[in-house]
Amino acid sequence: MTQPPLAVTVVAQGAMGAGVGRRLARNGVEVRTSLAGRSRASAERAAAAGMRDVEDAALVAVPIVLSIVPPSEAVATVERFAAICRRTGARPLYADLNAVSPETAARVAGIAEAAGMAFADGGIIGGPPREDGYNPAIYVSGAEAPRLAVLRERGGLDIRLIEGPVGAASALKMSYAGITKGLTALASTMMLAATRAGAAEALHAELSQSQPQLLAWFGRMVPSMYAKAYRWAGEMEEIADFIGRDRAESAIYDGAARLYERLAADEAGERREIAALEAFLQRGAKPG
Amino acid sequence: MTQPPLAVTVVAQGAMGAGVGRRLARNGVEVRTSLAGRSRASAERAAAAGMRDVEDAALVAVPIVLSIVPPSEAVATVERFAAICRRTGARPLYADLNAVSPETAARVAGIAEAAGMAFADGGIIGGPPREDGYNPAIYVSGAEAPRLAVLRERGGLDIRLIEGPVGAASALKMSYAGITKGLTALASTMMLAATRAGAAEALHAELSQSQPQLLAWFGRMVPSMYAKAYRWAGEMEEIADFIGRDRAESAIYDGAARLYERLAADEAGERREIAALEAFLQRGAKPG
């Protein structure tokens, strides 16, 4: 018995969106997207992933819409889909898989539901799906989240249903990213400060001796951050909201957001701080 | 040939000061200290370590004075010794081994040198010396620092001379502690936020799977922090100074300082947040 074809809309076409789209397409799912206003690079990623650019009405004429965008675009994205649904009367399940706070997820849910869509909360832990079979964990929560299991069964995604209402999956994503991307910020801050103070060599030597696992972790995570620093800045803001602005420790993530903003500008510009980070991490490669 | 006896003054008698004092005393060094205004617990630690309570004049009639106090007491401590040296004319080498910024170390140096003392900068990485032979690394820098090598040769301490002026050893200490104690703050922040949001179980499970080394590290470092949170708060302030208050990422350490202040109060009081941290970390001990 052949099943009826499954169609899923995935917005947008960044590394993660295109990676998820390709995984679904390779598994026989029809993957729709919208390239309106998107860059040529996005269009190329979408085409390579087997994602089809469609008109607005077709975007929502699917059982499931996945929102995979930078945190700062989560609300604008659901507003766009809500407007299309109001015009067409379509009622897909809208899943927000973005790195946003539970509060932002609740706001997105309210906009989706006011337009008649069902809503599921989600959060992605890990990098984009790869050709070698690697899949990130896609955590989902909320009463409608079980409807996303079809993406595991037929789409090859690692969908993980967790207990709890809308917001639970986002809370997990925030607290996990707060550790991993927070530590990347903290390590970068200290490698840069040690370099400015002339203590880089001594710090690298001491870390090599007493914290070799952390140093190895920095060597993997810090270089992978440069190109993503702009997006991570927004994520740090969401994490500060998640902690609660009334709690003093939320300042940790405000500080991390400012660092990532500066590194994003450095990455696009002179790359002076990035060169300092690279020089620090490559000390390990030198003999002695 | 017997060497003339070596006398060293160590202030104060906290876990680190008493541990260093004991290591020196066990190696035959005469260890002097001052118990004026100190608690009964300090007096007991000093006695157990073989540290001798002496009058002010005898405190400075030694070749070396080691300052091992909370960061917030570093300046008051050197001021006290400077006053004694002015009265007595003694000229010991004053080594500040505290977790202070290079700027604070320079200020301490200025006060010591104005009273005629030589000065060495230092920073201790690791816990107090233990009976099992464990020694922390005591990094020292500055033109006078080579005079501290006698504490390795005759005192059994792990003295490590690093290149650079006064401030270099403090910079190393700041950047190392900024990573390790900063990460402890960040992990505590996220474990508490996840717990408040009902995501503790999911976070623990995901960390167990994808970041087992970090989770094990938290299990060692977080519980060791509770009793030291008050002192660590001051250290976070020094690290923010070290980064430079004009750099936005210094806010990371202001946030960490506030968290440690609150946890110190919780540790002395209701222990509600500490109980939440313990509950999080002990999830790993449960079957399944």
From TrEMBL, chains A, B:
Domain of life: Bacteria
Domain Phosphogluconate dehydrogenase NAD-binding putative C-terminal: 194-263
Pfam families: DUF1932, NAD_binding_2
Matches recorded under InterPro entries: 6-PGluconate_DH-like_C_sf, 6PGD_dom2, 6PGDH_NADP-bd, NAD(P)-bd_dom_sf, Pgluconate_DH_NAD-bd_C
Domain 6-phosphogluconate dehydrogenase NADP-binding: from-to ranges: 9-131
GO molecular function, one term: NADP binding
Protein name: 6-phosphogluconate dehydrogenase
